[in-house]
Design brief:
Blueprint lengths: L2 H11 L4 H8 L3 H8 L7 H11 L3 H7 L11 H20 L1
Helix pairs in contact: 2-3, 2-4
Length: about 100
């Protein structure tokens, strides 16, 4: 999983500066930076605060953080087919 990358990607797509998201989530900018670079793993409460700051449901961050390595080999073909569609729906509903 790449939770930090998912958070950073959502933040950038929504044109939210790191310091602004950190303030909304009531964490420091340096802590958010560590989360986005996957150097720190936030607890669920912090993840929920970040999701709220990004105005997305928390499960969206979890879905966007999935990497091919997280998918069993026998299901990777299905993941490759469905992932672009699901990502498009997420973008249309929660980012655009």
């Amino acid at each position: 999983m790449n939770i930090g990358g998912a958070i950073e990607g959502l933040r950038k797509k929504k044109n939210i500066k790191q310091n602004v998201l950190a303030e909304k989530a009531e964490i420091t900018q340096s802590y958010l930076s560590l989360i986005e670079s996957n150097k720190k793993e936030p607890n669920l409460k912090t993840l929920k605060a970040i999701a709220d700051g990004l105005e997305v449901p928390l499960p969206i961050i979890f879905f966007l953080s999935i990497t091919p390595d997280d998918i069993p080999v026998e299901k990777q073909e299905s993941y490759k087919l469905l992932s672009p569609l699901v990502n498009s729906v997420i973008k249309d509903i929660f980012i655009a």
